[in-house]
């Protein structure tokens, strides 16, 4: 690499770091419409009361936090996911912390990939509460594997769950909303439904498909202004998404807990989702920087975005192949809590000598860069 190019790269990094710093200072963690709605718009506490809300994937992560926050607003809840014990645990916590009574929460086990069960599940909700005001299509799984090493079954599973499962449930609920001429269909998509990242080709495809589908459905429902179709696109958020992500085989998931302190807090993501629901926003982007900034880059300067994604993606793949998922995350945590001369001492406590050797001087040097450049670089090794 020539010195000139290196200088340009450094200047670009410094510029990005400056912008990130400025945006973090302004605490921008959502797109501008969403932030405006948070500042000036309707409050979830006024708008979402007395509603019946059906949340899929309510046993973990974003869905779980969503039902906790909803339970404080006085809505009736339907909790769906596959594991009934987990749903019962979530229900108990809703009752402990929220304003709801036992009869206000229905635990409804549901496998999104078992499409034949969706009609009966919808009937059960209608029997119990008489209406469905909001369907939150949240259940989903991610992926961490290279396309060339991944079985076709993984792609099928991701489409079955993230795309077809979501469509199927929407298909069952929509006629009821059309009959009432009102309702909200809120789908938890992803920034990866807009942009792309390596190791998630099946996930990106399913989320891109989902976004295309719901954007089209919205236009078909234009004659029903009371029915709102909303795409929520979060960046990295604290949850079990990486642990549960599929890898090369459909029977194999990543299975390890990864450090998550650099990801957005689940409670903040959910608060912004509620604001989006209260204000009937059609699409929202929820992410900390630099992820949000990168989404804007993809929107306005796709060629630059590709260039940057390729550079960061290459490193992400290299680290994935070396199995450096956890150490790289841990470096970030370490960086946040230690001064630079303490880093190696700290790393020694949990890395094997081989892993320590693998973290070459280049990686370590990036730790002593100014904070945001470092944060920017390291975050993109794996998310
Ligand atoms: N956490 C992130 O960084 C992030 C970012 C962007 C988008 N998302 C999206 O948010 C949604 C929620 O994910 P999360 O981050 O809370 O992950 P999570 O793994 O913590 O929760 C996923 C939920 O989906 C449920 N689920 C999985 N397979 C199912 C099936 N076959 N049938 C029914 N339920 C099933 C799980 O039981 C769980 O309740 C997903 O759609 C995901 O794509 C997450």
UniProtKB/TrEMBL annotation:
Name of the protein described by the UniProt record: Dehydrogenase/reductase 7
Listed transmembrane segments: none
Recorded family membership: Belongs to the short-chain dehydrogenases/reductases (SDR) family.
Keyword field contains tRNA-binding: no
Any single Pfam family the record assigns to this protein: adh_short
The gene coding this protein: DHRS7
PROSITE patterns in UniProt: ADH_SHORT
Top-level division of the source organism's lineage: Eukaryota
UniProt keywords, alphabetically: Oxidoreductase
């Amino acid at each position: 690499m020539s010195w000139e190019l290196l200088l340009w790269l450094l200047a670009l990094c410094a510029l990005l770091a400056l912008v990130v710093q400025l945006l973090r200072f302004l605490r921008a963690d959502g797109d501008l419409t969403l932030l405006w709605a948070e500042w000036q718009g309707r409050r979830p506490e006024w708008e979402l009361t007395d509603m019946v809300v059906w949340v899929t994937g309510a046993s973990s992560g974003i869905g779980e936090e969503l039902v906790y926050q909803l339970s404080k607003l006085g809505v009736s809840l339907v909790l769906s996911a596959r594991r009934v014990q987990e749903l019962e645990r979530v229900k108990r916590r809703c009752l402990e912390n929220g304003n709801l009574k036992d009869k206000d929460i229905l635990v409804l086990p549901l496998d999104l990939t078992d499409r034949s069960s969706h009609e009966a599940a919808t009937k059960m909700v209608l029997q119990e509460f008489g209406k469905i005001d909001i369907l939150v299509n949240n259940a989903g799984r991610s992926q961490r594997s290279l396309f060339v090493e991944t079985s076709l079954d993984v792609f099928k599973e991701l489409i079955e769950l993230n795309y077809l499962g979501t469509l199927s449930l929407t298909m069952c609920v929509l006629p009821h909303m059309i009959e009432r001429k009102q309702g909200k269909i809120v789908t938890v998509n992803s920034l990866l439904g807009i942009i792309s990242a390596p190791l998630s080709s099946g996930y990106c495809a399913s989320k891109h498909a989902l976004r295309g589908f719901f954007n089209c459905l919205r236009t078909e429902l234009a004659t029903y202004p009371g029915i709102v179709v909303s795409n929520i696109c979060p960046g990295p958020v604290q949850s079990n998404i990486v642990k549960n992500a599929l890898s090369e085989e459909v029977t194999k998931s990543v299975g390890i807990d990864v450090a998550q302190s650099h990801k957005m807090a689940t409670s903040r993501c959910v608060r912004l989702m509620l604001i989006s629901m209260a204000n009937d926003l059609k699409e929202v982007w929820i992410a900390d920087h630099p992820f949000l900034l990168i989404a804007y880059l993809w929107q306005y300067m796709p060629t630059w975005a590709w260039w940057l994604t390729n550079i960061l993606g290459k490193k992400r793949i290299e680290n994935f192949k070396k199995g450096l998922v956890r150490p790289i995350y841990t470096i970030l945590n370490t960086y946040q809590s230690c001064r630079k001369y303490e880093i190696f001492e700290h790393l020694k406590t949990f890395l094997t000598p081989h892993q320590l050797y693998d973290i070459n001087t280049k990686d370590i040097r990036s730790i002593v860069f100014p904070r945001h450049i470092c944060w920017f670089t390291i975050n993109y090794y794996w998310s």
